[in-house]
Amino acid sequence: MKEVHCVICSKKVTNDEVAMNVKVLGKQLGTIRCYDCLASVMSCSKTKLIELSEYYKSSGCNLFKINYL
Ligand SMILES: [Zn+2]
């Protein structure tokens, strides 16, 4: 299992965070951001991103079934 770190704050990211990056920004795996930094890029709250990721997962989005890490 490899570790992926946020490109902005260097925090370790979770698989869901990687999936969310791919979902909203496309497959640019070199620039993964944690929920905090992704939220500031998208001008929304971290809570909103977590809600969105839960929504995508529950709706069966394939991007959230991939093991990125
Ligand atoms: Zn970050």
Low-confidence stretches: none
Kindly name the structural category.
Answer: mainly alpha
Mean pLDDT: 92
Which descriptor suits the 3D outline? globular
Describe the largest sheet: none
- Based on CA atoms alone, the radius of gyration comes out at 11 Å
Count of strand segments: 0
Distance between the termini: 6 Å
Strand content: under 5%
Bound ligands, each once: zinc ion
> N-to-C SSE series?
HHH
Question: Notable features of this structure?
Answer:
globular, binds zinc ion, 69 residues, mainly alpha
Structural overview:
By secondary structure, the protein is mainly alpha-helical. The protein has a domain at 15-61. 46% of the residues lie in helices and 0% in strands. It has helices spanning 15-25, 35-42, 46-58. The chain is globular. The mean pLDDT is 92. Zinc ion (ZN) is lined by residues 6, 8-9, 11, 33-34, 36-37.
